[in-house]
Amino acid sequence: MQVRIETLAPVRVATMRHVGPYGPSVNRFWMDTFGPWCQRHGLVPGATAYGIGWDDPSISPAAKCRYDACVEVAANWSVPAPATASELPGGRYAVADFEGTLVDLSRAWTELLRDWLPASGWVIDGRPLFERMGPQARFDPVTGVLVCELCLPVKAR
After folding, report:
1. What share of the chain in percent tops pLDDT 90?
2. What phi and psi values does residue 147 have, to the nearest 5 degrees?
3. Does the pTM of the predicted model rise above 0.70?
4. How many CB atoms lie within 10 A of CB 116?
5. CA angle 92, 23, 109 (to 5 degrees)
6. What is the dihedral of CA 65, 102, 80, 11, to 10 degrees?
């Protein structure tokens, strides 16, 4: 896994929460709920999107896992319900390019956290980790392949 350290600026986002198992149900949430909401409000194509998984599915019951789908919005944009406005904090992040299926995504996060992080000289801090879907990102609904960046908040040991 190729990982680079980047300093990311804080980002204001419109956020919708999904509660339930990660994986296919999150994908359906993007396709059936969040994506159409973004389209209705003129936020796609072109806006950078983010996915934040708040819970460790190996610890939390799948039915209680929280996931936030987010899209970057202007500072003065009034966020219509049911979305809410929030801010992703800036700072140093370990960033890795990802291309694969939802199963591969889970494995990539495990590799980043279990293998890369302990050997890196960095430690995770209290900011959320997320997938970032910028202009290069794409999702193929037929193959289930997602291209995005994994962003892990880090600080020096």
Report:
1. 83
2. -120, 120
3. yes
4. 16
5. 30
6. 90
| Residue 23 confidence (pLDDT) | 84
Q: What are phi and psi of 120, to 5 degrees?
A: -90, -20
Structure tokens at 153: 């908040």
Question: Is the link from the previous residue into 128 a cis peptide, with omega within 30 of 0?
Answer: no
- Indicate the domain borders of the chain: 3-156
- Total Cβ atoms within 10 A of residue 123: 12
The CATH-assigned architecture of domain 3-156 is Alpha-Beta Barrel (3.20)
154 close to 123: Cβ distance less than 8 angstroms: yes
Range 37-45 contact pairs with CB under 8 angstroms and sequence separation of 24 or more: 37/82, 37/83, 38/14, 38/71, 41/14, 41/80, 43/14, 43/71, 43/73, 44/71
